[in-house]
């Protein structure tokens, strides 16, 4: 404990400990993949590049999408985007809780909260469990002129029935 305390008597030691901690923190950070935070601006950039739109039009499209989802969820509707997930409202029941500072029992009222559930395919993709993507149904080839249907085989000549036995 003396090594990590900051006082005048232990100052050089704490400086060394701080450097060691900083080196450990940097080493741990280097082990983790970089966490790029994607916000609205980056998403608008991607939309504009992928769809060949200006950033202004892409921003309007993004805002319209988010606004539409918000409006539908506020009305109590479920919004499902296939392959991505479902937005919905979940109702929380009234319950008892405790005030953390006093420990007194308090009543927490019922409420509604927005919720999102990711699709199974997206969860699998995140966890690296994706199977080969399903092949899209092949487009039907253009109607080529059909070859003449094969002619049915000629009927076989009637075979004579059983030979009559001796006359009695």
Could you characterize what this model shows?
GO terms for molecular function: DNA binding; structural constituent of chromatin. InterPro entries: Hist_DNA-bd (IPR000119), Histone-like_DNA-bd_CS (IPR020816), IHF-like_DNA-bd_dom_sf (IPR010992). Belongs to the bacterial histone-like protein family. Keywords: DNA-binding. The structure is a single chain. The longest helix has 21 residues. It contains 4 helices and 5 strands; from the N terminus they run H-H-H-E-E-E-E-E-H. It has a domain of 80 residues: IHF-like DNA-binding proteins (HU Protein, Chain A). Strands 1-2-5 form a 3-stranded antiparallel sheet. It has 168 residues and is of the alpha+beta class.
Structural descriptors:
168 residues, alpha+beta, HU Protein, Chain A, 3-stranded antiparallel sheet, two-stranded antiparallel ribbon, disordered N terminus
CATH class of the domain at 40-119: Few Secondary Structures
Q: What percentage of amino acids are in beta strands? A: 15-25%
Number of strands: 5
Report the end-to-end length measured between terminal Cα atoms.
128 Å
What is the CATH superfamily classification of the domain at 40-119? Answer: IHF-like DNA-binding proteins
Which residues sit in consecutive blocks of at least 5 with pLDDT less than 50?
1-27
Radius of gyration: 37 Å
- What is the arithmetic mean of pLDDT? 76
Number of helices: 4
Using the coordinates shown, work out and report the CATH topology of the domain at 40-119.
Answer: HU Protein, Chain A
* Helical amount: 25-40%
N-to-C series of helices and strands: HHHEEEEEH
Family: Belongs to the bacterial histone-like protein family.
Region (Disordered): 130-168
Biased composition (Low complexity): 131-151
Biased composition (Pro residues): 152-168
């Amino acid at each position: 404990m003396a090594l990590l305390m900051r006082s005048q008597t232990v100052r050089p030691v704490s400086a060394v400990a701080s450097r060691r901690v900083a080196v450990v923190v940097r080493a741990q950070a280097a082990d983790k993949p970089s966490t790029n935070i994607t916000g609205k601006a980056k998403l608008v950039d991607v939309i504009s590049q992928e769809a060949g739109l200006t950033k202004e039009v892409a921003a309007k499209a993004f805002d319209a999408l988010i606004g539409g989802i918000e409006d539908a969820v506020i009305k109590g509707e479920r919004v499902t985007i296939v392959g991505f997930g479902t937005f919905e409202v979940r109702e929380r029941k009234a319950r008892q809780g405790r005030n953390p500072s006093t420990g007194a029992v308090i009543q927490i009222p019922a409420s509604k909260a927005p919720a999102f559930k990711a699709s199974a395919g997206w969860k699998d993709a995140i966890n690296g469990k994706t199977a080969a993507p399903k092949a899209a149904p092949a487009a039907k080839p253009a109607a080529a002129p059909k070859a003449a249907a094969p002619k049915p085989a000629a009927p076989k000549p009637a075979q004579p029935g059983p030979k009559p036995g001796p006359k009695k």
